[in-house]
Write a structure and sequence with these properties.
Quinone Oxidoreductase, Chain A, domain 1; 371 residues; alpha/beta; six-stranded parallel beta sheet; single chain; Rossmann fold; seven-stranded mixed beta sheet; 29% helix; 13 helices; 2 domains
Length: 371
């Protein structure tokens, strides 16, 4: 089979490799689409962010199959211990793989396992025609979802966790700083949780128009101070919950105009700031400023969390899109054909504004036609 193989940061090739055989707890997937993440592209380019150590360690051992944790695939073979997936199921991977041995795992708190295995970083991902993955990390999806939507589902599963951890209550005022993929998703989910109004800020007028169509209140950050605008709309109080969904390179969390500082400025006293975006490097903050407003700075844990007997956030994310309660297709704007397009897809994803892309690029791996 063909797969993307990374030789160093920024160096790659498509090569013929052995098709994997699933073990007892794995399934073999035929991959239809892969959606690159911004984090993966930054790591490929050598940036020191989350998972950088894992990627560097694998590259130090020689050429490695890296990346591809957001995908749509079909089960073509399953291990003898797998019972929640069947051959023919289309799946995505909302989960990480807990170690199963630490005190967190043994006491039922697998979501907080400090030794999770991450698809595409610690083990090969889906940048290949086939991949074998632990069934524990996968969830089946409805036939009504397109392959493009399935490949874009993993960020929504993370957004569900962000909103669940935020503690939004019916009637709350919510603000979202940055209307990228997860910002747009968190805003829609906040409305679904019962928020009275959800303000979203961005500098892209098209994203703001799309947000307005979904019942969100857009704020054009190019024409005003978002903090002043949110404060004015809340009678000087601020929002109950603010999501910082920009991430990236920021310098100060409580002073200036960086997105985190905007979130801290827009939240009410006693409110919650939810850190959605990954931050590159370190930020400075005034502990006194955070203490003075009694702000809770929430950093959600990734993975899957139960929502009830036999159900979890991975299942729920797929159901939200299938039912139309949350829309994600507007952010799938660029696709490329074949694994040989990997470098171009990386460039699109890392430089979305240059290409007019709203979300990451998707790579169509096979000729599957469920679009």
């Amino acid at each position: 089979m063909r797969a993307v193989v990374c030789h160093d940061f920024g160096a790659w090739s498509v090569e013929d490799v052995d098709r994997p055989t699933p073990d007892a707890n794995e399934v073999l997937l035929e991959i239809h689409r892969v959606q690159l993440s911004v984090t993966e592209c930054a790591l490929f380019q050598g940036e020191s962010i989350a998972h950088a150590e894992s990627v560097a360690a694998r590259l130090a051992e020689g050429p490695a199959r890296l990346f591809g944790h957001e995908f749509c695939g079909t089960v073509v073979e399953r291990g003898e211990n797998v019972d929640h997936l069947a051959v023919g199921d289309r799946v995505y991977a909302p989960g990480k793989i807990p170690c199963g041995e630490c005190s967190y795992c043994e006491s039922g708190f697998k979501r907080y396992c400090p030794s999770k295995t991450y698809i595409g970083y610690d083990i090969p991902g889906a940048l290949a025609e086939y991949t074998a993955l632990p069934a524990e990390a996968l969830r089946p999806v409805a036939d009504s979802l397109s392959d493009a939507e399935v490949a874009a589902l993993q960020p929504l599963a993370s957004s569900v966790l962000c909103v669940r951890d935020s503690g939004i209550q019916s009637g709350d005022i919510v603000a979202v700083i940055g209307t990228g993929v997860m910002g747009y998703q968190c805003a829609q989910l906040a409305l679904a949780e019962g928020a009275e109004r959800v303000f979203v800020t961005d500098v892209d007028p098209k994203k703001l128009d799309i947000a307005a169509e979904r019942g969100l209140d857009p704020i054009d950050a190019t024409g005003c101070d978002p903090v002043e605008e949110i404060t004015a709309h809340t009678n000087g109080v601020g929002a109950d919950v603010v999501f910082e969904a920009v991430g990236g390179d920021q310098s100060h969390a409580t002073d200036g105009s960086d997105p985190i500082a905007q979130a801290m400025g827009a939240v009410k006293a006693g409110g919650t700031v939810v850190q959605v975006g990954y931050i590159i490097g370190d930020v400075t903050f005034s502990a006194r400023a955070v203490r003075k407003k009694s702000v809770t700075w929430q950093n959600p844990v990734t993975g899957i969390a139960p929502t009830g007997p036999g159900r979890d956030t991975g299942d729920f994310a797929a159901e939200l899109v299938a039912s139309g309660r949350v829309s994600i297709s507007e952010y799938v704007t660029h696709e490329r054909s074949g694994l040989d397009s990997f470098a171009e897809a990386v460039d699109i994803t890392a430089n979305k504004a240059d290409y007019g892309a709203r979300g990451p690029a998707q790579i169509v791996v096979d000729s599957h036609t469920n679009l």
